[in-house]
Amino acid sequence: MKKNILVAGATGHLGSMICKALTGQGANVIALVRKESDAGKIESLAKAGATVVGVDFNKNVEIAKACEGIDCVVSALAGLAEVIIDTQSALLDGAISAGVKRFIPSDFCTDYQPLTPGENRNFDLRRTFKGYIDEKDIQATSIFNGAFADILKYNTPILNLKNRSIAYWGDKADWKLDFTTMENTAAFTAAVALEDESPRDLHIASFQISPNMMKESIKVITEQDFNLQKLSDLDEFSANIKKQRLENPSGEQELYAKWQQAQYIYSMFTTQHPLLDNHHHNEIVWTSADEYLRSFLKQVE
Ligand SMILES: NC(=O)c1ccc[n+]([C@@H]2O[C@H](COP(=O)([O-])OP(=O)(O)OC[C@H]3O[C@@H](n4cnc5c(N)ncnc54)[C@H](OP(=O)(O)O)[C@@H]3O)[C@@H](O)[C@H]2O)c1
User: Fold this and answer.
1) If pLDDT is split at 50, 70 and 90, which confidence band does 1 have?
2) What domains appear along the chain, each with residue ranges and CATH number?
3) Which of 62, 108, 151 has the most ligand 1 atoms within 8 A of CB, as the residue to mutate?
């Protein structure tokens, strides 16, 4: 029998890809949207085969009704505390009222559990929600995918195509960073949502690449020598980010404030996924570093 999977945050980048992966893997998909959601995005979810259900996330009865007969709820919500803690908790409470057995929270990041609280605001919100869900009678599964590989295209210090530079911190030139494409993350999440039960935590990466390896790969692909540079020690980096955060209080209301972006980079250089669960779904074709780098470096002049 087909499984019924509900996706919250279905209009988002990742959420819409999870919906498509789910329909492709034979699920009945209920895409939960809200009044404010974009009509075009709703239409494309319906076209992809999802049943779109509109709810007021503040009304437990509406969420519980949408969750009736659902095997697993997947949250791909994005936002600050009012979304990751409040809206997600409301979603979880509604799912529990409806007797849903499984819930995948909107983690989709580097495993924050080994990271010191206070080093990454957005991870701290996920840690708080984890505390909430782990007290409840529902099976939770977190998917930790490191960074979305797309960030390699955005001229961050990790890889800056304009400056032809690759940065690292501390003595981490050989530290492997976890990257997963959104396609692989969506396919894996869909496959996990369709299981009867799954481990509490699953770690994945399409590829793991160190700054040194990136320099070598880029040289082979582009025949250009990118400049590998140490920017600072990690303690100094952390102290600097804390200073930036204090000096920019308005960033507390921004999802990706500049200091938050630096916190993500700091997290990537201090936590990694030594053991991957990619094999949990061997049918997924994981994008290699070479394939991913070639997909956009070909255009670098
Ligand atoms: N590891 C990485 O490098 C990385 C990078 C980016 C994102 N992520 C993570 O991936 C997940 C999804 O992110 P995304 O970029 O796909 O997000 P996104 O495109 O911004 O989509 C956010 C979704 O959340 C919904 N939403 C936001 N506020 C809401 C509210 N108050 N009530 C109900 N729904 C609300 C939006 O609905 P509307 O359309 O109605 O606004 C939308 O469907 C998040 O956990 C995010 O942190 C990870």
Assistant:
1) confident
2) 4-144+180-203 (3.40.50.720), 148-178+207-273+285-297 (3.90.25)
3) 108
